[in-house]
Amino acid sequence: MGLTDMFSRLTSWQSLMGQLLLLVNPPLLLLGQVTVNWFAILNLILAPTLSALAQLGLSRTRESDAALNAARLTATPKGWLVHW
Fold this sequence. Notes:
Blueprint: H1 2-24, H2 26-31, H3 38-73, H4 79-83
């Protein structure tokens, strides 16, 4: 979980920096000196949410694998179904 948490924090930080840069550039946008890539803007907005969803999915998978391994270890093949 440490690696996914690190990627989640890094993604959130990069998204925040990109959004701050977007807020700084309106004068250049108004003068027509800069064009905006709207796909990149959408990525900046959605990246933290997608990263959190991926982290939750990995957590759920790891929990299921741990329950399955515990059932194998205790030799109760249906014991892990009680958890769900």
